[in-house]
């Protein structure tokens, strides 16, 4: 009886781990797409609205879902607090703090950090060029992420169950 | 004074300024920041350099020198981290921030087919601290009343820079809007609808279209709008009874004011000029005075004891031969205007106003 219960628990845990790994592969392209949407929104706010950066970031945070929105909120809050951060410092801090909650990797983080060093300090045309460049780079990352998803998502799902089954068989 | 702009300053700069004595901070009017050069402060028209230890120096050596990093942080803060949203302001060479403080900028200009498109490599800032002096027009307003219309005469206010013109028109707008015509015959009159064309955002200090200074309940503000267009827009859309504009001087401003003034609207405007003779030397102002667009002229001076103002009727200023003679010595012209006040019913009035000054 206890053996059976143990086997069920191992199977359950293995399946869960597999699905969790698979979910990370599924989440990365989705979050990259959301990040690209957010940057497109920023492009509009800068290009047409002339909205000041902290306000624009706040607005973007209301339209994109959670882990991505937090990145922008953190960046906007960093300059609102009176601890003498420049925008670039605040942006960098936000990208490092908020990044762990996302499924995204170092490649796209580097893109965002590069963008942060240019945001807000030049005229409109220049800002739009920097945003376009960042969008292109994110697109490339998204394509790679999609490929990874196709390759590894299903594999992780079945791998989790299969390893659990193997462990159970060895134990019995 | 410092606490009004302190949120704009980078921490290092704030620390230096906060060490200064209280009495000096209360008189602070300008903070002039130049990259790599001594920090200069304007205190009641006097210039001093600030040391790192909280001393005020006459000489520049040993004073605190802001670094390039501080200047970049300052620029970020005054542009709200968004230089791209300030293109118009950079073209004009100054930024007005919340609270009505004007920050002048100097640096290397960017040209686009001969005309200035903006400034980059900004290396010098001049923060002018705006002050709202409620009641600064109390002594002046009762002398400008138009009895027949129960309103104010069209008035041109003349003074050199830094004499309190903007402070005065702001309070005039507020008083007229509330209907505070002072004791005397205007006591029971109603307030009037006031339209303010605030090209430099200094009169009302609007933040997103909402005035941050008290400019009265019947006042509409056309913020950051070119004066000539703003006056015409207000005339057409907001039915003002009094229009207030700051620092007129271009041809199209003159046209618009003439239009408004002859449409039965009282116009209160300021212009840079030392006195009436000076103003008559400027073609736009001269034409406006000659065709009766303004009925009154106010010359404004700031002295250590308060604002001095002198009221001259526009008609007598234009008629006066002394006024027509641009080469006449200023003092001679001024005394002649004063002397005429005995013969003429009362074209000239003067008053020293205390209490309004800070």
Can you describe what's shown?
The complex is a heterodimer of chains A (172) and B (358). Chain A is elongated and about 70 Å long. Chain A contains six helices and no strands. Chain A has one domain. The mean pLDDT of chain A is 91. Chain A is mainly α and 172 residues long. Chain B is built from 13 helices and 17 strands. Chain B has helices spanning 2-5, 11-18, 22-26, 68-78, 87-92, 165-178, 227-237, 251-261, 276-280, 283-290, 314-319, 321-324, 330-343; strands at 28-34, 40-43, 46-50, 56-57, 94-97, 101-112, 115-128, 145-146, 151-152, 155-159, 194-198, 219-223, 242-245, 266-272, 296-303, 306-313, 348-353. In chain B, helix 7 (227-237) runs parallel beside helix 8 (251-261) and helix 8 (251-261) packs parallel to helix 10 (283-290). Chain B has two domains: 2-128, Beta-Lactamase (2-Layer Sandwich); 141-353, Rossmann fold, CATH 3.40.50. Chain B is an alpha/beta fold and 358 residues long. Chain B is 30% helix and 28% strand. In chain B, the strands form three sheets. In chain B, strands 12-11-13-14-10-15-16-17 form an eight-stranded mixed β-sheet, sandwiched between helices.
Helix-strand layout with pairing:
The complex is a heterodimer of chains A (172) and B (358).
Chain A: H1 2-49, H2 53-63, H3 66-80, H4 87-99, H5 106-116, H6 124-171
Helix pairs in contact in A: 1-2, 1-6, 2-3, 3-4, 4-5, 5-6
Chain B: H1 2-5, H2 11-18, H3 22-26, E1 28-34, E2 40-43, E3 46-50, E4 56-57, H4 68-78, H5 87-92, E5 94-97, E6 101-112, E7 115-128, E8 145-146, E9 151-152, E10 155-159, H6 165-178, E11 194-198, E12 219-223, H7 227-237, E13 242-245, H8 251-261, E14 266-272, H9 276-280, H10 283-290, E15 296-303, E16 306-313, H11 314-319, H12 321-324, H13 330-343, E17 348-353
